[in-house]
Amino acid sequence: MQLSNEFPPFRHTPRLPGWDQSLGLLADPYRFISRHCRLLGSDVVQARLMLRPTFCLTGVRAAQLFYDPEKFTRVGAAPEPLRATLFGKGSVHGLDGAAHLHRKRFFTAAMAPEYLKDLLAIAEQSWQPMALQWQASPRTELYGASQQWLMRSVCNWAGVPLPQDQLTRRTSQLVTLFDSAASDVRGHLNARVARLQAEFWLARLIMDNRRGLDTLRERSLSWAAARLTDNEERLLPARIAAVELLNILRPTVAVSVFIVAAAHALHQHPQWAARLRGGSVQDRLAFVQEVRRFYPFIPAIPARVRHDFSWEGHRFDAGAHVLLDVYGINHDPRLWSEPEAFRPERFIGSTPGSFDFIPQGGGDSHTHHRCPGEDVTTSLMALAVRLLLEQSHYTVPPQRLDIQMNRLPALPADRFLMSDFKPA
Ligand code: HEM
After folding, report:
1. In this structure, are 314 and 401 located in the same domain?
2. What are 348-363's pLDDT values in tens digits?
3. Rounded CA separation 301/72 (Å)
4. 188 with 288, same domain?
5. What is the DSSP string of 294-347?
6. Over the range 79-116, which residues count as b (16 or more CB within 10 Å of their CB) and which as e?
7. Do 329 and 293 reside in the same domain of the chain?
8. Centroid of ligand 1 to alpha carbon of 421 (angstroms)
9. 244 and 226 in contact (C-beta within 8 Å)?
10. Which residue, by CA, sits nearest to atom 42 of ligand 1?
11. Peptide bond preceding 237: is omega within 30 degrees of 0, i.e. cis?
12. Alpha carbon separation from 146 to 225, 261, 388 (Å, rounded)
């Protein structure tokens, strides 16, 4: 009998030892996939996570595969605990095809350069009054301080009313969504409660606005969210509109994670702090890109196999869960020379590819699920770096600066404390 050439020989996809590896993933969420892929000598390995068989993918070719919408779907991909806290149920993250493209347009339009300019102007203006408050206390924790700065700025930009006496409470609700969702049981339950409260807050503003009250600034982003339709032109339920408005407010406040990382990098690399003081926009962007590559934030992205297929000899079964290794690809020695060294120079004069530099996802942000907020993120980071270097004086007191790689998101243990803060 002669074997047909049509069928590539199936390679055995290595399986991780043990019954379920969820605890191993939680113990080292950022390095879990790349470590096991390296140990087993394959860019595709099979694990059992949260009791579900899951393909773990690393490497640039696997990233390209992951963004093929013919092969993978996002419907039902994110586990319920993540949808009930971080993303919100019914959000753009879990849509496919025409429904996804239609919803995505709201985000890509909102991030257009002319609107981004307004956000940056608002953020720069709100720095000074906040800096005066930080000056009043002997120590300021940058993580918390920058969250309030970002919350005040993004709500103002999006036309969401936020009275001063609600700033702390509302900021804390949004922070709980990304900072506690993947912690212990209590933290996770807090994140579920915070989601209910935050959705209720925004859904009420949206419903009142739909009834003709001027609860949202006219023509603002929140006003547009209140008028969001699905791809068949039906008005979205107010709760889903609130979920999507939160998908702008929450991640903007989460830029605080990268601002802390940037301050950490300025402290660890004083030669870069000196170079950036009064330095060029190009240097500042290269620094910010290296912060996004080097520091951990999102460990992996989930999807599901749409239908049976094989790739490089690995057989993927319809319905199987898949995780793409975000942190591992940003640290892959096949893509980055000395990946564990912090070297912003690597971004000067070179534009990263769509699948090898994926701190906020890969592919195309208009048609794929790639994050639409990358320009917002890099611009706010670059602004914070400039304001910290050129419009602030502070000292970095003795503290624990080690990055806690076993928490999500990973942060310096003391959240970056500054003392003797003074606006310049
Ligand atoms: C704080 C830094 C940020 C990080 C690390 C981050 C990371 C990510 C990642 C990994 C994804 C998933 C990509 C995928 O599924 O392929 C994503 C999606 C998304 N991000 Fe971001 N993001 C950030 C900031 C932002 C900002 C500032 C906004 C909006 C103002 C935003 C809005 C979104 C939305 C709406 C999606 C869903 C896109 C879709 O499913 O099509 N993100 N982000």
Report:
1. no
2. 998 889 999 999 999 9
3. 12
4. yes
5. HS----EEEEEE-S-EEETTEEE-TT-EEEEEHHHHHT-TTTSSSTTS--GGGG
6. eeebbbbbbbebbbbbbeeeebebbbebbeebbeeeeb
7. no
8. 32
9. no
10. 373
11. no
12. 25, 12, 11
pLDDT at 278: 86
Question: What mean pLDDT value characterizes the chain?
Answer: 96
Rounded CA Rg of the chain: 22
pLDDT in tens, 209-265: 999 999 999 999 999 999 999 999 999 999 999 999 999 999 999 999 999 999 999
What the block records as the tokens of 325 is 């290794």
- List the one residue out of 291, 298, 292 whose CA is nearest residue 268: 291
* Structural domain containing residue 353: 1-66+299-358
pLDDT value at 297 more than 50:
yes
Measure 320 CA to ligand 1 centroid, in angstroms. 23
3-state secondary structure of 360: coil
Last residue of a domain, one of 307, 337, 358: 358
On whether both 250 and 323 belong to a single domain, the answer is no
Task: Tokens for 76, please give them.
Answer: 């039902």
Question: Is the pLDDT at 6 greater than 80, yes or no?
Answer: no
Residues contacting ligand 1 via CB (< 6 Å): 92-93, 104, 107, 247-248, 251-252, 254-255, 258, 297-298, 301, 359-361, 369-373, 376-377
Place of tokens 């994926």: 358
Count Cβ atoms below 10 Å from residue 182 Cβ, excluding itself: 19
Pairing of strands 300-305, 321-325: antiparallel
Is residue 3 predicted with pLDDT exceeding 90? no
Whether residue 79 has pLDDT greater than 70? yes
Domain end, chosen from 324, 343, 358, is at: 358
**Strand 44-49 versus strand 52-57 pairing type:** antiparallel
Mean pLDDT computed over 126-145: 95
42: CA distance to ligand 1 center in Å? 28
**Do 196 and 292 share a structural domain?**
yes
Atom of ligand 1 nearest to the CA of 92: 40
> 415 and 370 in one domain?
yes
For residue 10, the model assigns a pLDDT of 60
